[in-house]
User: What shape does this take?
Amino acid sequence: MSGAVLVAIAACIGNFLQGWDNATIAGAIVYIKKDLNLGTTLEGLVVAMSLIGATVITTCSGPISDSLGRRPMLILSSILYFVGGLIMLWSPNVFVLCIARLLDGFGIGLAVTLVPVYVSETAPSDIRGLLNTLPQFNGSGGMFLAYCMIFGMSLTSSPSWRLMLGVLSIPSLLYFALTVFYLPESPRWLVSKGKMREAKQVLQKLRGREDVSGEMALLVEGLGIGAETSIEEYIIGPADELADGQESTAEKGKIKLYGPEQGLSWVAKQVDGRGSLVLASRQGSMVNQSMSLIDPLVTLFGSVHEKLPDTGSMRSMLFPNFGSMLSTAEPQMKHEQWDEESLQREGEDYMSGDAGEDSDDDLHSPLISRQTTSLEKDMPHPTSHGSISSMRRHSTLMPGTGEAAGIGGGWQLAWKWSEGEGEDGKKEGGFKRIYLHQEEVPGSQRGSIVSLPGGNVPAEGEYIQAAALVSQPALFSKELMDQHPVGPAMVHPAETATKGPIWVALLDPGVKHALFVGIGIQILQQFSGINGVLYYTPQILEDAGVEVLLANMGISSESASFLISALTTLLMLPCIGVAMRLMDISGRRTLLLMTIPVLIVSLIILVIFELVSLGSVINAAISTACVIIYFCCFVMGYGPIPNILCSEIFPTRVRGLCIAICALVFWIGDIIVTYTLPVMLSSIGLAGIFGIYAVVCIISWIFVFLKVPETKGLPLEVITEFFSVGARETAAAAKSE
Assistant: This one.
């Protein structure tokens, strides 16, 4: 895990620079307006230029990152930070300063938008929440250090605002060096472009092990958008438990699941859903019919986390090496990569491939073994499919080199091949990808569950009950199926990247569902009061007598203001540290539901003591306590979690585009709140402002409770499958009303 952690820390330097810039301009503007004789309008423009730049760059950053990659955009962000810092250091007049601030804003926009995406795509699922809280921690850390620097410079006889702003170039150089020489490209983006060899090398670096075949298969399956996903329930057991002479699996209504090793397979039988996931799906639909505001998705995700088996049961004897169909072949085989640069060759048979043509570094498509279907025996070998990846007899059931414990969150990845007869009497096959989740079964039901008709009941523990998300493989090609190929019709990942405009994917019900959640939580976060409380903090602390105390120590009012801001941001750091610890234990949804009520109470108390005076000392003390509690709870929940959720809930192919849409909403909301605050302050006062923020926080809690699912510990690909299922459940419930 150390590779992924170090990469996340390096990437989050972009957020450190954002926090640094926010603090330095807040301090430097005091001296800029004196030096350049700025009026109120120009003063506001200088501060706002970075916000404008971030908003503008966000509109195009997502699609470009989906096209060119995450890493090039982070490199560009570091360059913009560096150039902006140099120009601010030189700035001879306010117009040049505004241009520098605009470039700086471009860098901020790229970092804030894409760092969460990059971290989510490189982090293991079990620590993804922790690593994606680093942007919040680094941003607050940057603000604290910058305020300390400004406080120190303010104690000099002639503080230089150009130096305050220009220092940004020094850490941005470090950021540039790390993005160029250390940060790898996102493995999920590489797979989406068919660069399988490079993706494998990156994963090996991030995970610190050679065998990453299981995760490679998962990343390939994450390329699909819009496939029909269903929830099924299976009883799964080892295939060799069937007694000799028994009827075939197909004749008895059973299926085979295929594992990573040659000859390793399991027998599975679909049963009436009695597990938590299937029951939750049905319950979600019924609840949805009676109360349309409740999202079935919340129920589905909740059932997974409530029934998650312990770590021991994840490593069931049925899944000793359930890693991937993308596994390694024989060590003595010759070099040949499944990569867009090397496998796009004409004239190759779909079934071609001798034992001497591949190497142990070879990466294959996640296809079922050529030895596992009877369909191929009745059909001739087809001709070449051009640039389609070849199907090799030995490609999918080779053993991996290490033990795999699934794909995260108690889930396993498998494939199944079922056969039947078509309308013309010819045999047809169906190739499906399934995500399996072991279910806990009450002891009273275990006897009936493990009984497979037609065979003896094996010893307890040899069969398990598992829920399954069943869908078409991401590389499935309907066009090839129409040509009646032998076995599954699969294309190379690079081929799927050219299918239609990327904007069309936004119309997929699962993507629209995720966008509703992402946009909703970003809007509500912006109007939850953080900007107003930050604005009010200096006045509260001044009323509490902090500035008077510092003035008695010989510190000027300006220096005292900077020191107070530094202490305020310092208080945030340990709270963010607690959030990092809890993000993957308690979960995102739980943290929001626990911390938002504290925000509501803090805001209500601020309103009360703004309207009722119990004495200046008492009012100041209580207001100070409320502000500190508000800050601490905000950075533990509502601060980092909206960005974390938005980086998790979208499919790989449109993740950059969708998170850019959510980020654009964030920046527009920031602009609205920032520039309406003075107007609202003069019209309805602080009590009215905090009252509105309290109402928004109440709405936020209701929204989270009804619409925001718990995503902790789940692979990104499983999360997007759930959104597809949830969208289907919602549509079905709407039709039935």
